[in-house]
């Protein structure tokens, strides 16, 4: 009797000990540097998951495309060889076609508009679309409004873009739009872009200020134009099976951690946008910050007509008119 009790007690204690010590490690990656708006997103997420799960889950963070570019990371998450990724929506349409609509140029008036759409019913409906494709999309975050850089000339009008060879994301909406400007498009994964710019394989690229700054593109690009031609959302994606395995409270912890990551990520985008132009000018870039955006919008009229057919005018208007 005593012995059984002892054995039971011991077993119980050991059980509690193993539970207390059990720690599951998961991986999350970004394609840009740690010292960036995206680094803030995943570092915050990692810290918050650990805190909110009492250390039972540890998130290992990888930067600079160490685990691959964005498309590769999303693919790895879908397959389950990597649990988590933080990515722009660039390559997302290859996995979740419904997300494509967010990449339409000049769709959002400003960051406040984009954030409201993503955090409101439209954004939440889109997050749910990831479920059927093997993902749990935890939260929308932000990459920022994209601007064009190149090594050839100042871009003030859409005509100045004609014939420029530019790296684009692996995104069909972007590619169609940039072709509409007369740009020669070269889709490429982000980790290859710096070298491609340096070696002159392409003349230019387009990215938000936080990416241009953190990737040090000022070292290989002379001209920056604040075209703000498209808003670039970002998001936290998780392998669906890995998410489904979590206890209910842990699921909420992961979602809340992603939301906190998104909050600080957006704050960092605001900071970078506020000081970015002065920073990049100080580093030697010529920055055109007073271009006439309406000319760029007009140049895309034929492409936009096609987008209205593809996505449905009502769906685009629902986003455009969201308050
Ligand atoms: O997500 O590929 C891109 O240009 C992205 O904007 C970049 O990797 C940050």
Q: Which runs of at least 5 residues are low in confidence (pLDDT < 50)? A: none
**Structural class determined from secondary elements:** alpha/beta
In DSSP terms (H or I, runs of 4 or more residues), the helix count works out at 13
**Average pLDDT over all residues:** 95
- CATH class placement: Alpha Beta
Question: How much of the sequence is in beta strands?
Answer: 15-25%
Total domain count: 1
The general outline is: globular
- The share of residues in helices is 40-55%
Bound molecules: (2R,3R)-2,3,4-trihydroxybutanoic acid
The CA-CA distance between the termini, in Å, is 71 Å
Quickly give the CATH architecture: 3-Layer(aba) Sandwich
Structure description:
It contains 13 helices and nine strands. Strands 3, 4, 7, 8 and 9 form a five-stranded mixed β-sheet that branches. The termini are far apart. It is globular, with a radius of gyration of 22 Å. It is an alpha/beta fold and 323 residues long. The protein has a single domain, classed as D-Maltodextrin-Binding Protein, domain 2 (3-Layer(aba) Sandwich), CATH 3.40.190.170. Helices cover 46% and strands 20% of the residues. The longest helix has 35 residues, at 248-282. The mean pLDDT is 95. Bound molecules: (2R,3R)-2,3,4-trihydroxybutanoic acid (EAX). (2R,3R)-2,3,4-trihydroxybutanoic acid is lined by residues 31-32, 70, 88, 90, 143, 169, 190, 207, 211, 232.
């Amino acid at each position: 009797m005593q012995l059984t009790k002892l054995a039971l007690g011991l077993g119980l204690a050991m059980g509690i000990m193993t539970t207390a010590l059990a720690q599951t490690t998961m991986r999350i990656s970004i394609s840009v540097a740690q010292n960036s708006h995206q680094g803030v997103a995943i570092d915050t997420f990692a810290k918050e998951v650990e805190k909110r799960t009492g250390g039972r889950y540890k998130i290992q963070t990888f930067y600079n495309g160490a685990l691959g570019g964005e498309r590769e990371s999303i693919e790895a998450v879908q397959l389950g060889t990597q649990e988590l990724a933080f990515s722009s929506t660039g390559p997302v349409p290859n996995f979740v076609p419904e997300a494509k609509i967010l990449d339409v140029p000049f769709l959002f008036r400003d960051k406040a508009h984009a954030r409201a759409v993503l955090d409101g019913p439209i954004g939440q409906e889109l997050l749910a679309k990831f479920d059927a494709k093997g993902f749990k999309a935890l939260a929308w975050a932000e990459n920022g409004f994209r601007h064009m850089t190149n090594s050839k000339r100042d871009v003030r009008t859409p005509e100045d873009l004609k014939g420029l060879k530019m790296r684009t994301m692996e995104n069909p909406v972007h590619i169609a739009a940039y072709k509409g400007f007369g740009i020669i498009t070269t889709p490429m994964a982000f980790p290859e872009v710096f070298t491609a710019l340096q070696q002159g394989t392409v003349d230019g690229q387009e990215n938000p200020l936080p990416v241009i700054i953190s990737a040090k593109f000022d070292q290989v690009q002379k001209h920056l134009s604040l075209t703000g031609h498209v808003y670039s959302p970002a998001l936290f994606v998780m392998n669906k099976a890995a998410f489904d395995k979590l206890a209910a409270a842990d699921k909420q912890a992961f979602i809340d951690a992603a939301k906190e990551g998104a909050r600080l990520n957006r704050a960092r985008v605001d900071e970078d946008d506020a000081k970015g132009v002065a920073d990049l000018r100080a580093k030697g870039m010529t920055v055109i910050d007073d271009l006439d955006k309406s000319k760029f919008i007009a140049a895309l009229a034929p492409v936009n007509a096609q987008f209205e057919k593809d996505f449905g005018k009502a769906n685009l208007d629902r986003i455009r008119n969201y308050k």
